[in-house]
Amino acid sequence: MKNINVNLTKEQAKIVNEATKKYGFANRSEFFRSLLRYIFMYSPSILKKLDSFVFEEPPTKDANKIIAELEASGRHSEDFIKSLAAGLRKSNYFKK
After folding, report:
1. How far from chain centre, in Å, is Cα 26?
2. Which of 13, 30, 54, 87 could pair with 8 as two cysteines, CB 3.0-4.6 Å apart?
3. How far apart are the first and last CA of the chain?
4. What residues does each domain of the chain span?
5. Could you tell me the pTM of the whole model?
6. What are 5-42's pLDDT values in tens digits?
7. pLDDT tens readout for residues 51-83
């Protein structure tokens, strides 16, 4: 098997944890594999609709706030943050 990392919001993680326990999955990986099998087998058309909800509006359009929060998290390299900051500052979507 191949490992992948998925970042979830606190609310999403809570839902996954509750469903994993409620439905008796051994762990969250088993839950996600089962969910994917179900989608691929019984609802493959949902995959065609992904582009309609892939992008969520960020909670802020303040590029400086986003950068500060990422730096404060300690989870990202300095190079990543610099690269992201440059991109956010070039974007017309985010406030300068």
Report:
1. 23
2. 13
3. 43
4. 10-52, 57-96
5. 0.52
6. 888 889 899 999 999 999 999 999 999 999 999 998 98
7. 766 667 778 888 889 899 989 999 888 998 999
